[in-house]
Amino acid sequence: MAQLVKMLDYVSRYEQDLSRYTTQFIRLKRSQWERMKRQWDNGVDLASWQLAADEESTATTTENESPAEEEVGKKRFSSLSRFLSFRKEEQIASKDAETPIETGDLQFTPNIIQDPRSVQQLRKLYMDQLFHFQLKWASSTLTERSRVDSKFMADKVLHDFLGSLPDSWLLFYFPVLKIKKAPVELEVILMTPVECICMTILETEEGSVLVGSGERFWTKKLGDQESKLLNPTIGLNRMGKIVSSLFSSAEVDFPIRKILLSRESYIDFPGAAHDIRIIDRRDYPKWVEQGKKMSTPMKSKQFKAAQVLLDHCQTTAASRLFETEEEHLGAEQY
Predict the structure, then answer these.
(1) Which of these, 30, 253, 50, lies nearest to 127 by C-alpha position?
(2) Which residues contact 52 (CB under 8 A, 6 or more apart)?
(3) pTM over 0.85
(4) End-to-end C-alpha distance for the chain, whole angstroms
(5) Mind listing the pLDDT tens digit for each residue in 166-209?
(6) How many CB atoms lie within 10 A of CB 289?
């Protein structure tokens, strides 16, 4: 599962410590899956996981609580005690790791409300929950939060990339960079262990044909209908130049590849430049499979290249210190 390092101008955990959070995510993803599968194999009701997490966060009472509130806290604590073995196991796993797994708002506890009938269904439910967790990490820290546009919950490209590509790939999804004090919106950047992929994605009707040329506009054909769209290589080449310039200024030597991708359409562009790779619906499944098989671990040059982009990213966020309880609960829905 690729890691969502930066999305638009949202605040991100990875901005605070890139190497720490990338490593922690991989460990957290693996340990929680193994633990959940083991619990499922043993017949444990997974729907109780989130209940346990919620009760644990509210069970502690304060001196200012009323007797009624204290009684509720006692009941919650009693209910929570059934899951102490699971929490103890989690603490042991955290203690053994080099970097402690964070708890509370930073911790990932799957909220499984369905009863999976197979390990495949279990894994799908787990990955869907992990997708929500990725959005949280890519839009909040302990002290700040950015409001996430609801469209990203249904973003098929984002969901597909995060669910299909390797853990060692770092995703910048339409990041906003500050170049000479001016905001510049880029498209999709994938930082793999061996190269930086600058990507323009064309989401059009299934089965349509995109006829490319060196002109300002391309032609989209769908049945008997034709329409125009702006030449996507213009933005792709611009993005490649910006990233190359930033790498050069930071003295980072890291290969850059440009990809023009469409998951649902055919691309007919025989005159494509040699430095642009075309991936359409005929090639997309193969490209994803090749990515899945990539076992190269994260490398120092990859981190340096990703950090260069993070250092130039613009961030817009609000303090969480004064957010109301309603705002906090609403934000947790994603």
Answers:
(1) 30
(2) 80, 82, 83, 86, 87, 109
(3) no
(4) 18
(5) 999 999 999 999 998 899 999 999 999 999 999 999 999 999 99
(6) 10
